[in-house]
Amino acid sequence: MVQIAWLGHSAVHVKGGGVDILIDPFFTGNPTYPAGYEDGLDKVDLIVITHGHEDHIGDSLRLAKKFDATVVAMYEICMWLGGQGVEKLQPMNIGGRIESHGVGFTMVNAQHSSAIIKDGQPITMGDPAGFIVEIGGKVLYHLGDTEVFSDMALIQRLHKPTVGFVPIGDRFTMGPRTAAIAVNELLALDTVIPVHWGTFDLLSGTPEAFKPLVERSTVLTPKAGELIQI
């Protein structure tokens, strides 16, 4: 059995086979984060980071230290976290696959950028990515932040994900129309959970605009913090 909870923005909690995973855990400063959710976490085994923007790295440093979790991320992100005292790291790059805690992770392409800003200057965090996560007999695809691109079809062919966390907020990622094209024409997902929407006023895309455009997947819009079985 695999359970997931959307935690606002692009943050996701995945539970399966006794393993707890946080993806892009942006809690502090996230107005769509379900307040108090962290208090109910007994453990976090793995933290997955799709790219180096602050709304995706989020609370990873603090949470990795608090739970003694292993961070799975782009090499540059791992080295940056390691320099700040995170000890358990699984650095990767595009195309690579690893297993940790019995869970398979494959890093795949995303069309975006990846940097943090310090004193007004960008510091590169390597390339942006999406992640294929194999857990509990399910294959999940977190697209990270991305524009639609044709090689999504190749990712589907190679990895056969059935559940996707798809950004729909527009301006910085796909909007509802382009996200629907990705789902309808390039992917073959049974279940889609829209992410990266509603957090800030700049994000104009909504599930209400996205859902009617989707033709071949079930779109779920759980409340933030609601744990559902997939």
Largest sheet: 7 strands, mixed
Number of helices: 6
What is the general shape? globular
User: How far is the first residue's CA from the last residue's CA?
Assistant: 8 Å
Spatial extent as radius of gyration = 16 Å
CATH domain topology: Metallo-beta-lactamase, Chain A
Relative strand content? 25-35%
Structural class: alpha/beta
Tally of distinct domains: 1
Mean pLDDT: 98
Proportion of residues in helical segments: 10-25%
Low-confidence stretches: none
**Under the CATH scheme, which architecture would be assigned?**
4-Layer Sandwich
Please outline the helices and strands:
Blueprint: E1 2-6, E2 12-16, E3 19-23, E4 46-48, H1 54-57, H2 60-67, E5 70-74, H3 75-82, E6 89-92, E7 97-100, E8 103-109, E9 115-118, E10 121-124, E11 129-135, E12 138-142, H4 152-159, E13 163-167, H5 176-186, E14 191-195, H6 207-210, E15 218-219, E16 228-229
Parallel strand pairs: 3-4, 4-5, 5-6, 12-13, 13-14, 14-15
Antiparallel strand pairs: 1-2, 1-16, 2-3, 7-8, 8-11, 9-10, 11-12
What are the key terms here?
single chain, 230 residues, alpha/beta, Metallo-beta-lactamase, Chain A, seven-stranded mixed β-sheet, 16 strands, globular
